[in-house]
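Check this.
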Amino acid sequence: MQNPLSLKSLNHFSLVCRSVEKSLDFYQNVIGFLPIRRPGSFDFHGAWKCINITVINIDEFRLFNYGIGIHLLKCEDPDRMPSISKIINPKDNHISFQCENMATVERKLTEMKIEYVKSRVEEGGIYVDQVFFHDPDGSMIEICNCDVLPVVPLAGDTIRSCSI
């Protein structure tokens, strides 16, 4: 397999938020991320929340777990953000997380009164269960047991860019 940029893994993704505080609560208490310290060498306004320290006028939080980070960035003009859809569409852009137990995920989401949509995919007798739901800003989250599917490269196939 080629790796033209010598990549190792996903490091982080950034989400623009209407309310960093609501998103911080969601990603900590629903998804299980932990706040981490912001490097002091950054020369732009922002903050990473440290545990047991309250910071006011937050523009940015850094969270980490599962080997990846999330940067929550406060939107400068929340009124200009896209409206939040009430429709949960599994075919929308989304972030997906593996889980250990789908029944636990569903039970916890129900307890937290988080609306979700279930899906089941079958591939060669193997079943993958998925749940989809929104974060406070409408970003789609998927939780699945996708690791039951084997990853099978398309041997001999080459992906090429072409101009039309």
Summary: The CA atoms of residues 83 and 138 lie 8 Å apart. Confidence is low (pLDDT under 50) at residues 43-57, 158-164. The chain has two domains: 10-80, 82-163. Helices lie at 20-29, 102-111.
